Amino acid sequence: MEVLADYLLFLAKAVTIVFAFGAIVALVANAVRHQRQGHNDRLDVQSLNERYEALSDAVIDTIADEPARKQRQKARKAEEKRRKKASKLGKSETRPKLFVIDFDGDIKASGTDALRHEVTAVLQTAEPGDEVLLRLESSGGMVHGYGLAASQLARLRDHGIRLTIAIDKVAASGGYMMACVADRICCAPFAIVGSIGVIAQLPNFNRLLREHNVDFELHTAGEYKRTLTMFGENTEEGRAKFREELEEVHGLFKRFIEQFRPQLDLNTVATGEHWFGTRAKELNLVDDVITSDDLLLKASREKALYRLEFHPRRSLQDRLTSAVDGAWRGALRSLRHDTGTTWD
Fold first, then answer.
1. Degrees (nearest 5) of the Cα angle 88, 98, 151?
2. Is 145 or 25 the better-scoring residue by pLDDT?
3. In this structure, are 120 and 161 located in the same domain?
4. Which of 111, 141, 219, 341 is the most exposed place for a label (fewest CB within 10 A)?
5. Model confidence, pTM
6. List 97, 138, 139, 173, catalytic entry
7. Does one domain contain both 92 and 173?
8. Count of beta carbons in the 10 Å neighbourhood of residue 307
9. Is 173 a catalytic residue?
10. 225 a catalytic residue
11. Domain that holds residue 163
């Protein structure tokens, strides 16, 4: 029986590996085929009103009695018929629109590329009375990346489109730089808000190199082309200049925030500290304490809600990397399941 069990375990592993390699080949072939066909950038638009209606219908259809259920179904069919007829006649939505955009920021603010296209789409289609809700989650990152992201949001205000930003978890440092552009900032009670400060850090291996008799040379043109280095010997003059540059960036950060939220006491909030939602409201960092879910639910009763999501074209290399990585992770999960082994 032990021999049979070992054989079956070996067979399971072998089948899993063969399946994984087969899946990788299929995914690579599929990626190449899609690349040849040419997948362009695309903008997905989803009606959130329909999603809320579907959630409500699912519950009511379950708990309602038969006559009430039939009456609701009849009303839904009549509404769908009305919408189709209006669409054929070329009639657009009469309610004001609320465009919903998501921004999940990393250290590079990589989502800025999609954000700029989403903002452009809104500017091309928005009518008087339309608004934008941005659901923002970011702990901040590179100054130039988040500066550009904040500038994209400022385009909405420059065109007279009201912007609300909802923070459910965190909008700190560069994330708050983006948030302060909004006409209205909302956050959940325990969302982390603030961190109006600048940080920079780097290790220095100069002593380690000297211990191993390794020379390091750095040649620059310009007195302050390089202030601190990882491998050279840093000087007090270089450190002072580096701190001066950090203070300059901090000053730019504070002036940017003051431009959009003059009601803030920067001496109190621009210390690099962060606060939770309720305290952030007391400090005027946010305007209301409410989750994005409640914001959207309330808006759905009087506005047409549309979620925008831009998908840039991915290169063949990105598609292949993603396909192989996904297949490999799937194979590892299968092996762990078959053998009861865990690893990171």
1. 125
2. 145
3. yes
4. 219
5. 0.74
6. 173
7. yes
8. 19
9. yes
10. yes
11. 45-193+277-312
